[in-house]
Amino acid sequence: xxxxxxxxxxxxxxxxxxxxxxxxxxxxxxxxxxxxxxxxxxxxxxxxxxxxxxxxxxxxxxxxxxxxxxxxxxxxxxxxxxxxxxxxxxxxxxxxxxxxxxxxxxxxxxxxxxxxxxxxxxxxxxxxxxxxxxxxxxxxxxxxxxxxxxxxxxxxxxxxxxxxxxxxxxxxxxxxxxxxxxxxxxxxxxxxxxxxxxxxxxxxxxxxxxxxxxxxxxxxxxxxxxxxxxxxxxxxxxxxxxxxxxxxxxxxxxxxxxxxxxxxxxxxxxxxxxxxxxxxxxxxxxxxxxxxxxxxxxxxxxxxxxxxxxxx
Amino acid sequence: xxxxxxxxxxxxxxxxxxxxxxxxxxxxxxxxxxxxxxxxxxxxxxxxxxxxxxxxxxxxxxxxxxxxxxxxxxxxxxxxxxxxxxxxxxxxxxxxxxxxxxxxxxxxxxxxxxxxxxxxxxxxxxxxxxxxxxxxxxxxxxxxxxxxxxxxxxxxxxxxxxxxxxxxxxxxxxxxxxxxxxxxxxxxxxxxxxxxxxxxx
Lengths: 312, 201
What we know:
Structural class of chain A: alpha/beta
Oligomer: heterodimer
Family (chain B): Belongs to the purine/pyrimidine phosphoribosyltransferase family. PyrR subfamily.
Number of strands of chain A: 9
Catalytic activity (chain B): UMP + diphosphate = 5-phospho-alpha-D-ribose 1-diphosphate + uracil
Region (Disordered) (chain B): 1-25
Largest sheet of chain B: 5 strands, parallel
CATH superfamily of the largest domain in chain A: Aspartate/ornithine carbamoyltransferase
Shape of chain B: globular
EC number (chain B): 2.4.2.9
GO molecular function, one term (chain B): glycosyltransferase activity
CATH topology of the domain at 26-93 and 101-169 in chain B: Rossmann fold
């Protein structure tokens, strides 16, 4: 593995390796010294063209716990706001000797361009590109589910909400099906992408019918900032049909868990009671996010580049 | 990878096809571990301060076996765990990334204890150096001791073992392989003539 651009690039063995490595990384949180020397002397650049709190902080914490040097680079306050191109930014990072670039961009495919253009030699990690993919979020979701449910083979996982604008949903469907889970996507017809039939999952418009058959329910944020059209009549109607509240949660099997990639719209796609309930693993997802990102950075950056290119 | 998982991979459990001779058989290994258990008790005047940490992969079952022998002799269990040193190796940037092995530190920690590191083969000493660094991030033991099943010489660092199952003079082109029932279906120490690529030191 040289880059992590899409959850689709991961084979089952590679995905399991990342999850197993993350399991070891997570035990670090219990130690007095939360630091490992694996990436000493390596430089990781957090290149964020879009606003983000938890993903950027999570990657920063992960890189620092592995002893890498971290440079944070956000579009606001940089030359990007003066109109610098992605290429010139990449050349600058290359000249500074970035070993790894964590990229979030509003345009789908920007991390792919960074990785494949030859502008820079470092590893690229996709931290969310447009409405395309967010592979580390899918990995941390799978990791969280695996800790609660055991193996994901044959587990029924339901992803609910704004699938059309969600990079989290796409990455999760791809990764979870690679890991053997049965994924069902539930969304209003207006928020289902046109190519949905090619995704390795089932589709439903009826949340209540799917609930009793779910081992885990993942609620997606309604992304109002990406909505330039009337996708549903009103927030109340959306909540009534696709929101997870106490009554709906009661229909879930006893062991089922509730996930949300955050940030939550409390009262919209998820009620406060559900978000704060014992079934909710939303806070745990954040903790696990650091472990997953440590595992990804470790596996991408700890080895020698020369050997990697030979075997790739 | 657990022993059970490893047993499912026939390519790992098959004995090597190259010409190799057995230098220790199952009963030799058993006697060596019994002696090491007694030496650990003698040196530390009992089992009280001792924590056994095996270095994956084959050091872990060896530590458990020594632990069982100490339990049989003293009637007292010794905290036993494992310590993965992958991220502390000095060649970490020179080789392709490796998966991590499991680290399991006993609940009471290692502060003020006598940590006995257990590994299968002592060769260059670089694994043990990495283990010492790893211990430093976990706590401050009163002392660190080293137990190995085989010491084959050719040290590249000033490190020595406190408890040795067998001193095995070897040449650098030879390869020492330790087989344990937990991973390989048999107990044996083998010497092969030529080191294949990717040799485990």
